[in-house]
Amino acid sequence: MSDFQPVSGFVLPRFAGIPTFMRLPHVPLDDPRLSQVQVGLIGAPWDGGTTNRPGPRHGPRQMRDASTMIRAQHGVTGLRPFEAMNCADLGDVAPNPADLQDSLARMQDFYARVKAAGIIPLTAGGDHLCTLPILRALAKDGPLGMIHFDSHTDLYHSYFNGQMYTHGTPFRRAVEEGLLDPKRVCMIGIRGTAYDSEDRDFADSVGIRVIPIEDFHQRGPAEVMAEARAIAGQGDTYVSYDIDFVDPAFAPGTGTPEVGGPNSFQALECARGLVGVKIVGADLVEVSPPFDPSGATAYLGASLMFEMLCAIVSAHS
Ligand code: MN
Ligand code: MN
Q: What domains appear along the chain, each with residue ranges and CATH number?
C-alpha cells in the first residue's frame, strides 16, 4: 500500500486535525515526494471572474473541511481510489486578488508544473474562469475533449463593454485558443433565462453538443452520460463541473443559481457516469461559502470531487 493514504477517522477523529482534501498528505510543489504523486488535489481560491454574487474564493477552504467526511471506499462500486493511485493535496494556487491577468498567469504556471510532473489535477475552485488557465497548461500537446456540467454554457464572447475574461466566457476563449476540440465537447444541464442566444449560436457554429435540462430530465443521467462518453471518445478529456448544474435546493451556495436542475443523487450519478473517459484533469467550481451557511453545498462539492477522483482512477490505474 502506498504512503499516500488518508488519515483514518479511527486514528484521528474526522473533526480533528488540520484539514487537507480528503485527509490526504499535503505535498507542495517543492516537496521531494511530488515525483510519486499521480493525482493532485488542488485549491484555486480565486473569483476575479465573477460577474454576479461573489464568494468562490472561499470554496477550497470550505471544501477541504467538508471533505474530511469522505471515507476511503466508494459506497456503490467498492473502489478504494487511494490504494489504486498515489493521491495528495498539492495545496492552493496563490492568486493575485487585485489583478485578473496576473492570477490567470499564476494559475497557468502552477498547472504547467503539475503537468510536467505527470500529475493529474483535480481542482476545487474558484469561479469558472479558473478553468481557462488550467486548460492552457493541460492542452499544451493538443486540444482536449471536455465534458461540462453547468446551468450555463460559459461560451459568451464578452461582458460589460468588451471584458473578455469572466466566468461567463472561459470556454469561448478556450475554443478560440485551440485548447478544446469543440466536436469533442459536451455541455450538460444548460437552463435558465439568458441575455440572448449568442452563446448557443456559437456552440452550434463550432459543433459543441449542448444538452439542455429538458432533455436531461426526459432521458435521465445514464443515457445522457452514454452520449457524453461517446462525444468525448477515446482521446484526452477534461471534466469541468460547475456546482450550479445542481438544483439550488440541493446546492444553494453558488453565485448564479438556476432552478429546475438535477438533485444531488442525479448529480453524483452523472459524475459516476464518467467512468470510461480518459480524464486528464477535472474541476469542481463555483461553490460560494458565503451563500452556503449549512455547508451542504461544500459537502456535495467534496462528494462530487470523490466521484471524479474514482473516475480518474478507473481510467488510469
Ligand atoms: Mn460555469
Ligand atoms: Mn454556471
A: 21-316 (3.40.800.10)
